[in-house]
Amino acid sequence: MNDQVLRDNLVEALTKEVAYISPKKALEDLKPENRTKHQNKNSHSVWDLFEHIRISQEDILRYTLDPNWISPSWPEGHWPPPNQKVTDEMWDSSIKKFFSDLDEVVSLAKNKKYDLTSEIPHGEGRTYLREILLVIAHNSYHLGQLIQTRKELGDWKF
Question: Which of 145, 131, 143 is nearest to 69 (CA)?
Answer without folding.
Answer: 131
